[in-house]
Structures are given as structure tokens and as C-alpha cells.
Target: methylated-DNA--[protein]-cysteine S-methyltransferase
Amino acid sequence: MANRKVVGKMVYWTSFDVEGWNVTMAATERGLLYVGLAEDAEEKMKSWLTKQYGAGEVKENADRLAEYADEVRSYLSGEVQDFTCSVDWSGTPFQNKVWKALQDIPYGQLVTYSDIAEIIGHPSAIRAAASAIGKNPLLLVIPCHRVIAKNGSLSGYRDGQQLKDRLIRMEGNSFTSSS
Model:
């Protein structure tokens, strides 16, 4: 994917802890752009921003992301199940189609990669759908943690299978990891 340069646009970011989760996020004026949960999420975010946007301007500013942070806090605290925040879609048309399909997976439900390929109208594009899911920059908001392998295993997750399992359990699913 070619870099989408941010011309005249600022990318804002912040990090915070909530309910034992380490959250790092970034946004533009258009909407939320990145959410990470790993201990090294800030480093991963900056690397991702460089790949996506090149040498765009990036500034830490918790106040600019307060609305997004409140929504993430509410989700991780179990107060809300869906996100209503605006998103700055950063993917290819195919990735965005996959990511929008992920947003339709109900809270606490699990689907497979092949289910997603079917939902987007490309039933034979399972690997392409899985690749798009793996490139999801908006953990939680685009709930890729709700996608598992056809054999029932957790499969991959950008910030680690342990966090994926924790999110699935937080949503009340009795999934037992076989990986």
C-alpha cells in the first residue's frame, strides 16, 4: 500500500492505562486512526504511522483524543459494547471493506476468517481477508479479536494472543484456547 501522506494534517496521539489495559491511540481531524494495547504499543504506533504517512507531523495531545479515550475506557470497563466514534479509514478499499464487516460482529460473538470472506462477497479470498484483518490498525474499535481460525484456535493478533484471549473473555465468551 502506498504511503498516504498527511499534507497539512496533524496526527495526535496519547497513551493511558484503564482496567489493567495499556492503551495507545492516534487520530487525525477525520477520526480515530490507531488503537494498540501492547506494552510496546507506542513504539508500534509510531512505526505504523511512519509506514502509512511518511514524515507527517505527529504530536502527543491527550486533550484532542479525550472523546476517543472516554469511549475506549467505557468499553474496557464493560459500560458499552459498541463504538460510535468517527474513524479515519486508512486501508485499501478491500481492507476497509473487511474492517467494516468486522464492525458488524456482535459483542461477545466469534466468527472465522472464512465467515468474513463470505460476508464481504469473496468466499475464496480467505487469505486476503485474514491479511486485511491482521493489518487492522484500530484494535477494539474494529473488533478483529472476535475472529478465530476455522479449527477453533485463537490464531494471530497484532498485540498478542494473550490479549486476544483476554478480550474474548471480557466480552463473556467461554472460548477455550486450543493454541
